[in-house]
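Researcher: Please translate sequence to structure tokens.
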Amino acid sequence: MARHTGPVCKLCRREGQKLFLKGQKCYTEKCPVDRRGYPPGQHGPAQARRRKQSDYAVQLREKQKVKRIYGLQEKQFRNLFESASKVEGITGENLLVALESRLDNIIFRMGLAVSRNQARQTIRHRHVEVNGRVVDIPSYQVKAGDEVAIKSGSKNLLPVEASLESRTRPSLVDWLALDEKARVGRMVRKPTRDDIPLAVQEQLIVELYSK
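Model: Translation complete:
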């Protein structure tokens, strides 16, 4: 599946809830999800009137929701699931921990970008260092103890400054630390499911891929 390049609000409407894909704009602008509470397209209103979805449809929507929140393509998401299924523990929780440990998500959670999409752009433009080395791969898995920083020549980037100064910026999660002035953060520890502020049922994704 190609990366979505159209209006991201359509993705939120398709899932029937805000996915906060536009960052702080989702807090400051009137959301189409509130104005048109049905899926996009010609048959959107008819879909909204359906009383019951099949088990497969419920599982698919949960998978699509998580995939869109983190901005992954289907192949990337499936590969991450396969890796999570090989790690000791609960597969669904392993999947969410792996998603949260991606470098683009770490930059977003630290408040150095207003959205994961902006975080990916910052990383691809080689503005981010991990343990003192430039990393331009958004899917890079950050480990406990790793230091993540905006490199010295990019500390005054306008998007980074705007994100840190945003009034709608989410609170820093417990498993990350950040020195705002130096633009340097650290993964204090590996996150657990309880640390991930995501209202999803990951077991439905496991059931979908297990068929």
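Researcher: Any highlights?
Model: Residues 179 and 185 are 6 Å apart (CA to CA).
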